[in-house]
């Protein structure tokens, strides 16, 4: 859906109030308990946030890319754990079905993903296949009209809560590259699927990851997304651009929150007879953060517009992911500096954000992988 301006601004205002009044006050508690209270999960469901990027015909909000990044700018203003809860349903966990799923797969899963009744996980990474995901070893051996999956997936977001896993496995045993990989929809509770212990992460407490282990896990051939073998990576690539833009927008939201908090603190805290905000060296940090966050916001909005216009944006989406995730790292570092000792201890939540945003440079393609993508596309274009 493309919302009219008034509806979009109403939606964003409601989301902004929800973030400020319901989510921000619970940040410390969520981090401390390493869990989002079920009542808050219910409120997040009621806001329709699990289905932001799922088409309206399946019960979602069907936001365009521009609308989705506008929402992610707002959601990014609070702990990334809240965003992570709905992230997989809107992104890598549902978009493969939206883009390449069979009509039956769409009917079966999208309505429940849109309401949050079903949580989706995207299981690509393995112990020996991270950035080089195409080298994955998890196998899916054909057995009549079924496949038998064996292998281990690592660091899978929302796996402890997931009802549905998109699992990438090699269906062509003779292949060693991404060409022999298929994407399967595997429901939690399928015999042979089990979970490892929850990972103890540096940050983003309240969002959970763990290993997902497949031991002779039997699924029907109809579980392959789109019903065709060997298409798994093509499906994954199609959803990557959208996911990268979404994460980039979350980085901008987090940066803007940190800048707001830093400015408020710098105006309030007095040293050498006046507020920190009057000191030019502190002003330089505030200004650098402001300019960088603004630059990231502009490039994300422009790239989202181009995608909505049907243009190919793989290079630009990688630029956004690289710049925005590195930018929020610098902004968080400056925020700790502006807060001084108060930034290093828990009280203001600055050290928590500093740890939380570190992940953005690592998942959905590390900074180095974005650099590889950008430069590879530059060379290919120059050669064309
Ligand atoms: C909290 C968390 C949640 C995650 N959620 C999911 C999920 O839901 N689903 C999922 O499938 N995966 C998930 N991941 C995995 C994540 O996508 C990978 O960790 C990431 O892609 C990097 O892979 P790796 O950890 O194996 O690092 P490696 O690939 O081993 O990389 C290590 C370092 O080497 C660099 N490097 C690697 N190759 C190159 C190269 N060619 N050129 C230059 N530098 C290179 C990397 O940039 C990095 O700095 C998650 C990870 C974490 C930590």
Describe, in plain words, how this protein is organized in 3D.
The model has no long low-confidence stretch (mean pLDDT 95). The protein is built from 13 helices and nine strands. It has helices at residues 5-23, 27-33, 38-46, 65-75, 80-90, 95-100, 103-115, 232-268, 280-308, 314-339, 341-344, 350-356, 367-383, and strands at 120-123, 139-143, 146-157, 164-170, 181-187, 193-198, 209-220, 270-271, 274-275. The chain is α+β, with helices and mostly antiparallel strands and 384 residues long. Helix content is 51%, strand content 15%. The structure holds flavin-adenine dinucleotide (FAD). Flavin-adenine dinucleotide binds at residues 122-125, 130-131, 155-157, 201, 209, 359, 362-363, 366, 368-369, 372. Residues 122-125, 130-131, 155-157, 201, 209, 359, 362-363, 366, 368-369, 372 line the site of flavin-adenine dinucleotide.
Which helices and strands appear, and what pairs or packs with what?
Layout: H1 5-23, H2 27-33, H3 38-46, H4 65-75, H5 80-90, H6 95-100, H7 103-115, E1 120-123, E2 139-143, E3 146-157, E4 164-170, E5 181-187, E6 193-198, E7 209-220, H8 232-268, E8 270-271, E9 274-275, H9 280-308, H10 314-339, H11 341-344, H12 350-356, H13 367-383
Parallel strand pairs: 1-4
Antiparallel strand pairs: 2-3, 3-7, 4-5, 6-7, 8-9
The site of flavin-adenine dinucleotide (FAD) has 18 residues, from strand 1, strand 3 and helix 13.
